[in-house]
Write a structure and sequence with these properties.
The chain is α/β, with parallel strands linked by helices. It has 8 helices and 13 strands. Helix 7 runs parallel beside helix 8.
């Protein structure tokens, strides 16, 4: 005979068994409530030279990079889930000698990146998570008959209209001076990370600028995840001596406001390109965690060969002026690891350079 107390005990056991069964059915989660480790790729400056044939994109190098990233997407250990592109995808309208339209060059870029598009399609993702931002070569309108409006329209047609439409102005900013920048500036939330794309060419001319009001807004209002990554075309800090091409570091007032906003927003890494080599620079804060600028402008544009003098050797933790490649960034719980992968022509293989590694944990 079963008494009321026995029934209660049996009910409690049944509930425990049910809970255990449900837990077994759930996927594994890390401490931030997201699925286990994943990664993303970052590359920049995939353009050709004017004298190259075909013009527009360094098709051979970009296709090699695309094939390797596709393997990262398919590999369950690497688990690459996004690709960020830091500008200068194409040569653009930088000279009267340019014979190709931006639209044709963008389509050429997509063909070279076909292995990546296919790899994501095979994973049956609802959309292809490739997120580019413009560089100065996308913004150039030097060639006769080309205007700022025409190059912007070609970007929007091929990329911008298919990117997140959450750029300026956000609802809380009612400024007539902020032009619509949807498809140029934008942000992406993915698992336990926030990605912010900063277009530095929304103003007339070719000097970089930042919509600081919008960036402050996003980093304050949209940060619901522990990891924050900001990417844009030009470096905020100069690593080596040489020509001072128009970069954020050429405009210290703009750069300092930009960097302070990244620090306040708990962004530990700024991903960039523009200079045609790969370099890592650490920026130490007095009362805040270390930050890094990771520059990977080695996606196919002519490399800045040679042995340039490093400006601050204590802060420049890595420099590679000889190899094409890209960064792979692994996010595992509260830990982030960045490594540069480069292609060696001599051995016809890819190498992950341990010297390039940046590793940190978020609080």
């Amino acid at each position: 005979m079963i008494f009321r107390k026995d029934l209660a005990r049996l009910s409690l056991i049944s509930v425990k068994i049910l809970l255990i069964g449900l837990l077994l059915l759930l996927p594994s989660f890390n401490s931030f409530g997201e699925e286990g480790s994943w990664s993303f790729a970052f590359l920049a400056d995939t353009r050709s030279r004017i004298k190259d044939k075909p013009q527009g994109v360094n098709v051979r190098i970009l296709h090699l990079i695309a094939q390797e990233i596709a393997l990262d997407v398919k590999d369950q250990t690497t688990n690459c889930e996004l690709v960020l592109v830091g500008g200068d995808l194409i040569l653009g309208q930088c000279s009267e000698k340019v014979t190709q339209s931006n639209k044709a060059a963008y389509q050429q870029w997509k063909r070279a990146m076909k292995p990546v598009y296919q790899a994501f399609h095979e994973k049956k993702v609802p959309y292809v998570p490739i997120y580019p931002v413009r560089g100065n070569h996308e913004a150039y309108h030097i060639k006769t008959g080309i205007t700022q409006e025409s190059v912007t329209n070609e970007w929007m047609s091929e990329f911008g209209n298919h990117l997140p439409q959450n750029g300026p102005p956000p609802p809380s900013i009612a400024s007539d001076q902020i032009r619509l920048q949807k498809g140029l500036n934008y942000f992406v939330k993915h698992k336990n990370a926030l990605f912010v794309a900063v277009d530095q060419y929304v103003k007339p001319g070719y000097g970089p600028s930042v919509n600081q009001e919008w960036l402050d807004h996003v980093l304050k209002r949209e940060k619901t995840s522990p990891h924050v990554f900001v990417f844009g075309h030009t470096p905020a800090w100069q690593t080596v001596e040489g020509k001072k091409s128009q970069s954020l570091f050429s405009y210290p007032e703009i750069r300092d406001k930009f960097w302070d906003s990244l620090r306040r927003g708990n962004c530990r890494v700024y991903l960039t390109g523009h200079q045609h080599y790969t370099a890592v620079r650490s920026i130490k804060g007095e009362a805040s965690p270390d930050m890094w600028q990771v520059m990977s402008g080695s996606g196919g544009a002519p490399l800045d060969h040679g042995r340039p003098r490093v400006i601050d050797p204590d802060r420049a933790t890595y420099l590679n002026t000889t190899d094409y490649g890209y960064y792979i960034v692994k996010v595992d719980g509260n830990e982030v690891t960045l490594k540069f992968k480069y292609y060696t022509e001599a051995d016809n293989k890819w190498i992950t350079d341990k010297r390039s590694m940046v590793r940190y944990k978020v609080r």
